[in-house]
Please model this.
Amino acid sequence: MRKYISLLLVVFLSLSMVNIYATGEEPGAIDRPNVRLDGDTYIEAEPGDTVDVRVMATLSFDRDGRYDYDYIVSGNLETAETQNIYIKDGHSELSLRPYDYRKNRYYDIYSNRLEDTAGLNFRVSVPDNAKAGNYVVTSNIFVNGQSAGKLSTTIRVTRNGEAAYQRLELSEVSVYPNMYDIKPGSMVVASVTVKNPTKDPVYNAQVRLEGMKDGGFTLLKDYNTRTIEVLYPGEKKDFLFELGSTPNIKTGNYEFTVSLEDPNNQGKETPENKRSFFLTVNQSPDSQSALIIENLVVPKKTLYPGNTATISFDLRNQGQSEAKRVMVKSKVDGSGLVARTVSQFFEATIAPGEVKHYEFTYYASPASTTQNYPISFSVEYFDQYSTEDKPLATEQVAGLFVSNPEKDNEGKDKKPSTPKLIIEKYSFEPQLPEAGTEFTMTLNFKNTHAQRTVKNIKIQLSNPEKSNPQSNTAGSNIFTPIDSSNTFFIDQIAPGGTVEKKIRFSTVPDATAKTYEINADFEYEDDKNNEFKSTESIGIPVIQQSRLEVDQIQTENNFMAGNGTSLSTTFYNTGKVTLYNMMVEVKSDDPSVEIQNGTYFIGNFNMGSTETHDASINSMEPGNKKVKVIYSYEDSAGKKQEVVKEVEYMVSEAPAFDPNDMGEMPQMPEEPQGIGSKIKNLATKWYFWLIIVALAAVILIVIRKIRHRKREKELTLDE
Model:
């Protein structure tokens, strides 16, 4: 019995040792070989050749005729002469297998040593333009990753190569996101690609970007010169230059130059060495500040010497930017009408949408003559897009008619009185014409002379301002007469008389919202056939129609009381002007309706923009509920506009809670069978009990034998 047990222990320990050293790599069994290096130490080559550098690594082992493990022999090639010689393949590796796989192994019968040789090969390319001379390359050899020595090889180039012209290629420059529509204060990226089409590497070339100026574009990071340390044959590299435009940059084209300094070009100039590109800066009129004169009130009564008259108007910033250093001035054309109040006002800032009111009072002095005194109101200002030498400006012209017969009669024999033809007043229907629509302008022409008639009156209207040159209406006037020309004729106007004319105009759709100036040029005669000419100015305010598009409101129209639902609305500014003080409100007149996140204030809603607002709707009471979504804003004329959408909900009652109805209890998942369960299942098999009986019989026999031997031993001792 003990023999059997000992045998089982030996087998068990053997199996355990096999598991531990199954890889065959018993600790400490690998010998470190001795390494001897031989190979090419001198090679001759000509320019343009590719030569092989061979190294033989011989491994010696102090073993008795064999070794059982693999050895990895590897190496790399290096050279310090990187500009004169090119390592084409600088890595090599070879595995030495055990004795039964190789045939080039031999025994040193005298020293009882085992030797094995590994041959490594490297490739070196000599450029066509290499100079004659000696070039040293070094082979670094490793065995199983550990350094085993170095071998130096001298490559002798026997003659000078041809100094062939080699150059890099500079491709076209790409600009992202857009090089033709850059806004002030924005950033663009210029991408430059350099290629090496030659068959040799090029070192230390430089890419240079020029064209940055103060007040224009600046380089945001890095430097304007980039060095290419090495560019291998067929390789290309991209270089990015981040450029930022200053906030007050002027509109126009800005030229930049990318140059390539190639050390291999032998000083030759070629068109490929430089590339020029332009960045175009545009300013959206809607993004600037825009001051307009509106609500101009001019007295219609005739002014006599010693009397005063007041002209008032509002100045509103309908742009998107803040107007700074605003100067409002008035100027009277002619003597005799003097200002009784200050003739200019200064405002530090006028915010977008802000309105300022101004009044100017004038006095007719005894020195005034009978005439219409033109009064010009000019506004000059700056914003973040304007420059110091060119402020933004707008102007409005009005007139006060002064009658002074006494002054007119002075020196009558010396100089006769000249009849004057003026525009006494003008109006528009509608009052604020919209771009792309039609309107009617009413003009009242007055003969200011008290005694003389004017006749053969020709009046021509001209518009000095044009529409956007980049639009489809480029070159056309802002205003076009309908069913008539811009010239009309009046037979005569009696002394002190007035004639009214109505003209219908159409406005181009892309007209910027502001006040445009139209000139009225007069040609007429008096009763003595004397010819006269004069010009009057008319200011026409134009506004852009605002357009707000609302997408279909996303919501669940049926929900259970207390559960609630979400409401999501998306809306767009599809017009050509900014919507000011934009706000979205979700409201309900029903007090049982609860609204969360019902108000969303946007402020300035730029043209082409999209916004989304989400709110939550809930009610604890069932029934039909109504909710309003109100979109409100101010248009370019300062008028409040509203778009209202109504949403209906059907709220159902929540089911009553029954404490006795707990629902079906979830069934517990069956636990996976453990060892105990497996034994129980095994106990149901007939062969399980047969094995148990057999084992019990064996154990019983063993116990009886042990007792029998013990009894025999006791009997022997008793004897």
Observations:
- The first strand starts at residue 34 and ends at 39.
